[in-house]
Structure formats: C-alpha cells, structure tokens
Amino acid sequence: MTGPDREASARELKAAVTADDVERLARRVLPCAVRDFVAGGSGTETTLAANRRALDRVHLVPRVLRDVSRASTAASLLGSDALLPAAVAPVAYQRLLHPEGELALARAAAAHGVPFTVSTLSSRPVEEIAATGAMTWFQLYWLRDPGERRALVRRAEDAGCAAVLLTVDVPWMARRPRDVRNGFALPPDVTAAHLAPRGPSRAHDASRGGSAVAAHTAQAFAPAVTWRDVAELRSLTRLPLVLKGVLAAEDAARAADLGVDGLVVSNHGGRQLDGAVPAVDALADVVAAAAGRCAVLMDSGVRSGTDVLRALALGADGVLLGRPLLWGLAAGGEAGARHVLGLLARELRDALGLAGCADIAAARRLETVRAP
C-alpha cells in the first residue's frame, strides 16, 4: 500500500499553524516504516539532531526604522525568478507518501512560484512532473552505467528542466538504523521511474537486518565519482550545474574553479555521514570560498521562515526544503504541501519585516550572532 492510511481533513490542515503541526498530522496517518524512512538519519542520528540545534544557535541582529511596508520575498535562483528564495529538495519515491507523489508536490511548488527538483529516484517520470507547469530542476546520482547517466541528462534537458544538480555526498547510501530495523523495502507499485528495469528491483526485496533501498542504490550508484566526472558532466550540458552536498571550503573553491553554477551546502539532512558538520555551520565558509563565482544554497534542518532568513543572513542565495514538504504531502497531498509552503512564505515575510528587511538583498546584509 502506498500513501497514508488517510489524509488529514481540510479543517485539520487549516488548524496547523506551523510545519511541526503538519508533521504531527502526517505522523498520525503514515505507516511506521514510511514514517521512519522520512524522519530517520544515519548512525546514531547525531548530525540529524545537530542540524536543528545549530540553526537555533544563529541569532539575527534586526535593523529598525526602515520602510518594510512592502517587504518582498521574491528571489532569483540559478538565473530564474522565484516568489521565495527556496526550492523543493530532491526526494526519492514520493508515492510512498501519497498516491500522486511528485505530481502533487510539483503542483504545489508551481502554485507558490518555487522550483521543484526531480530526483533520479523519483517515482514519477520527469516528463509528467514537468507537465504540471512547475519550474523543474533535475537531481542526478552518478550511475554506474555511463550511457544511462548521459541519457538521464538528455532526458532532463528535453523535458525542459532548468538546471542539473549532481549529488556528491552519496557514493553509497549510509546505514540508517531505522530502515535496517524495519527491513525497509518499497511496495511493488512504487518504482524508480527513471531507472531500468521498470519492474520490481532489489529495492523491493524486503529482508530482516537490511534496507532493500540501500541495496538497490549500492547496485546502481558509482562510488568512484571524482572531480574528473564533474568536468565531464559540465561538458555534457549547457544547463546550470550545481553540486549538492558540499561542506568543505576547499571543495567549494575547487568547484567554483571548474565553473559550476551553484553549490548546495548540505549534509543530506543527517542521512549520510553521521557526525558531519551541521550545514548552517559550514555555510559562511563555503560562501567565502565561492567568492561570488557561483550561487550558494543550503539545506538540512530548515523548518521555518526564520530558518530561511538565518541562511540568507549567512550568505546563502536560498534554501532547499525537504522534510516539511514531505509531511505536508503525506498529510494532505497537494493541499497539504501548498499549506506548508504558504506557512513558510508567511513566516519569511513576517521575519523579513521584523528584521527591518524590505527584500532578500537586505536580508543577506543582516548581522548574526552565534549563541554558545
């Protein structure tokens, strides 16, 4: 069975005034194994918890006596206009959360004027997602088969995607104890729409003491991806190229030297190297190393409009949103995802005005103080 046992009612969604409220609705309706697949992290989940603590330590220094009567959340992301400095993060297998999966979340993104990032492991094909009218980016895992990865890039271009994001922090999927305990596997009707074969794969082979999804990615992903491969990908497409999963300033500088168009400062939401630095703690150093040569986005732990403002004040051009939108999708399909995006938009507009910022450019000039 895919999707939640039942959706939250319109009344319940309306009563949810924060992303955390929506998460509680989603947890109530999702099967335990799917809930753990979304919420869980790797190892002892040290980095998963640290992401949140690190964001809460960032305090903003608001400015006063400024005209914020028309505070605007509009932004430019990778050369495209957006109504928020945010995009939907690439997330695999969204039909686990709702029968419409990626289509519902993409329509919600289109309604709020933010890009939707299609995952290599999407459970709906990129062509169907692009047909929703959403601005689409395509996330690429470096597959073992060179022909297959080249075909995916061409497919993304033909579908009208506006950027390619290469995930660089997953040579293989980290051990995620919640999935191991659950013997997590995909139901038969949820597949990776972009990968052959179309039918059941190792991702569907449930077993005790292991994650079938991890086994499938180990089979499909190339663990030897290097800077040479980044250069190859750069030569394959004229679309803006973004590296997702950069935390070290040295890596950021080298990526900028290679001519990438963007970086996503990310620890994969605490789902890869456990003990990795919180993304927000690495952000300022990456921004300095990029030195304006490419855009810098951030994900991992963003839950509110205030979090978005924190990232902007530390130099980010925008953020990627993951789990909060998945909880919205699970709780109420497209309506649930729209509700979460609406909450974040209102929170960001409120935070901008209260911080004395009339626009995103002003937000990026705010000072911050780190609590001990």
TrEMBL record:
Cofactor(s) of this protein: FMN
Superkingdom of the organism of origin: Bacteria
Keywords noted in UniProt: Flavoprotein, FMN, Oxidoreductase
Gene3D superfamilies, per database record: Aldolase class I
InterPro entries: Aldolase_TIM, Alpha-hydoxy_acid_DH_FMN, FMN-dep_DH, FMN_HAD, FMN_hydac_DH_AS
Keyword NAD: no
Record's keyword annotation contains Lipid biosynthesis: no
Pfam short name (any one): FMN_dh
Stretches assigned to the FMN hydroxy acid dehydrogenase domain: 11-372
Family under the similarity heading: Belongs to the FMN-dependent alpha-hydroxy acid dehydrogenase family.
Protein's recorded name: Alpha-hydroxy acid oxidase
Species of the source: Streptomyces ziwulingensis
